[in-house]
Specification:
The chain has ten helices and no strands. With 252 residues, the protein is an all-alpha fold. The protein has one domain. It is elongated and about 80 Å long.
Length: 252
């Protein structure tokens, strides 16, 4: 590790910097929602485009189908994400109420749960008893510890509305990219499809690179993996459209 990186790392681990970082909300909190929306949006619209091209439909039909799917699926996915996060928040709130009730009814039993949780983490003897006493002296800390440690639930709540908006915006923006060539009437259908293919491939690769920020993966590896996943979905849609045309006489 070079000196500059070491100095930067040491600066990030100063007490005041650590305290400020832990207090501040994560700027990347809604990035997974955006990544999910972007991937699904690009897969959805390019799959429609691929299927339409494979079936031999006109560019106009591909564009209409792509826009319709973009709007409907984007809204559906945003609503689904909203409901999922809202349900998670309600579940955590229910667990908190339950833990408050348990502390009221069987405080010694709840104290023993704290003791055993930290015993499994390697605390023993006087140190363990001080940890138990410190946590149980603050009811809210006690409950939050039980929620996180006993039930394995995330105690930092996400905003359902913000998560839904992040998903919807990413879905619409990224999902619209493969449709842009179909709004260029001066291109013939084959060139429209190939341009859409190149744009979709670029979107998949860039989204994969964005994923590496969240999951701390190598940029190139993450980009190529997402590109392969998106390419497989598009290839399946193209093959389905081509087979439907051959088997059922679909298309123009």
């Amino acid at each position: 590790m070079n000196d500059r990186r070491r100095d930067a790392l040491e600066h990030e681990h100063r007490p005041e910097v650590i305290e400020r970082r832990l207090r501040a909300p994560s700027r990347l909190r809604h990035l997974p929602d955006a990544i999910l929306g972007g991937i699904d949006g690009c897969v959805t619209t390019f799959a429609v485009v691929s299927g339409a091209f494979g079936a031999g439909f006109s560019s106009t039909v591909a564009l209409v189908l792509g826009v319709a799917n973009l709007l409907a699926d984007g809204f559906s996915m945003a609503v689904s994400n909203y409901e999922a996060i809202q349900a998670q928040r309600e579940h955590v709130a229910g667990v908190r109420r339950s833990e408050h009730h348990h502390i009221d009814v069987v405080p010694e039993g709840e104290r023993e749960e704290i003791r055993q949780i930290f015993l499994r983490k390697g605390f023993t003897g006087e140190t363990l008893e001080r940890v138990v006493e410190t946590i149980c002296s603050d009811r809210e800390v006690w409950v939050e510890t039980m929620v996180a440690e006993e039930h394995g639930l995330q105690t930092v709540a996400l905003s359902p509305l913000r998560s839904a908006l992040a998903t919807f915006i990413a879905f619409m923006v990224v999902g619209a990219m493969p449709l842009v060539p179909y709004a260029m009437p001066w291109l013939d259908p084959t060139r429209q499809f190939l341009t859409s293919l190149a744009v979709a491939g670029l979107m998949f690769f860039l989204i994969g690179m964005g994923k590496s920020l969240v999951y701390h993966q190598p940029l190139l590896t993450s980009g190529l993996r997402t590109l392969l996943i998106g390419g497989a979905a598009a290839g399946l849609a193209f093959l389905t459209g081509h087979l439907a045309r051959a088997l059922f006489g679909l298309g123009p």
